[in-house]
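queue> pop job 88
queue> type: inverse folding (structure -> sequence)
queue> payload:
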């Protein structure tokens, strides 16, 4: 695997592969890789001849009081895991290479509507930061296909809309959530959990599973969500949101059959997110 820091080196290298008619995959990451990231790389290997992973802790997607400084940086271990996983190119630019004029002067990409509410509501500007850096990476690599985890459900929806609205010829593939044995969705932020919090953390997924079962049995969404929030508080979380949306993140109506439960909750210093699909029975409606 080649590690590249420089934008021009990246362009030249990728260009050579494109001239050979190779199908190019991009896996954007912020590093501190775990089995969830490796599932993205494995999927990319299956869909392309050449896999580019990016590793960039993107300051634009962190709010002023968020964990940019604390975000785990484990470059050497990440490099070793990517090599082992069969990644061809690791692109890891500096902040000044991507944002040479500073963040304030930087042109931004804003995806309306989908980026508002849920994580976008609690983290103002977050999805502009994600959309901007992902657009830059798309422009630099010009991949045929790009891979994102389904754990970041709203992020995946925002990126699909970005690609569609900007007519980018890039296929976006969402890769299923990878969970620990106890159900906790893998996340770099799980590393912030104390031993005691780590023991509590699977309750987020377990709560979603209970809510899904209740909804699939036709119970009222309002009541189920209320019970879910109470269960999260009782377990020790401070819930940020717990919502039922249709799969495009619109409101659930009487016609909705395929829905998704989405949750974000604070546990100690870790903000955990998770989601779960729900198949709503025909007899239920939006007034549940
Ligand atoms: O999901 C992430 O790790 C980041 O939001 C991404 C897509 C790499 C953009 O910085």
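queue> result:
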């Amino acid at each position: 695997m080649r590690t590249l820091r420089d934008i021009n080196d990246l362009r030249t290298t990728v260009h050579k592969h494109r001239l050979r008619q190779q199908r190019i995959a991009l896996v954007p990451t912020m590093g501190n890789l775990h089995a969830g990231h490796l599932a993205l790389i494995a999927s990319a290997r299956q869909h392309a001849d050449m896999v580019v992973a990016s590793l960039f802790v993107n300051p634009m997607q962190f709010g002023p009081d968020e964990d940019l400084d604390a975000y785990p940086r484990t470059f050497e271990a990440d490099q070793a895991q990517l090599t082992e996983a069969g990644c061809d190119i690791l692109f890891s630019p500096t902040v000044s290479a991507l944002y040479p004029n500073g963040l304030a002067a930087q042109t931004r990409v804003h995806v309306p509507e989908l980026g508002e509410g849920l994580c976008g509501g609690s983290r103002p500007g977050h999805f502009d930061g994600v959309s901007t850096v992902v657009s830059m990476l798309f422009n630099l690599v010009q991949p045929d296909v790009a891979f994102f985890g389904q754990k970041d459900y709203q992020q995946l929806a925002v990126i699909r809309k970005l690609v569609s609205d900007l007519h980018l010829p890039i296929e976006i593939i969402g890769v299923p959530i990878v969970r620990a044995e106890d159900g906790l969705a893998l996340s770099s932020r799980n590393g912030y959990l104390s031993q005691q919090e780590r023991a509590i953390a699977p309750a987020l997924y377990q709560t979603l599973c209970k809510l899904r079962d209740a909804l699939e049995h036709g119970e009222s969404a309002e009541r189920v969500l209320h019970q879910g929030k109470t269960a999260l508080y009782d377990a020790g979380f401070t819930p940020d949101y717990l919502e039922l949306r249709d799969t495009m993140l619109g409101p659930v109506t009487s016609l909705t059959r395929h829905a998704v439960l989405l949750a974000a909750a604070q546990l100690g210093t870790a903000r955990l997110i998770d989601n779960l699909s729900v198949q709503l029975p025909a007899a239920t409606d939006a007034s549940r």
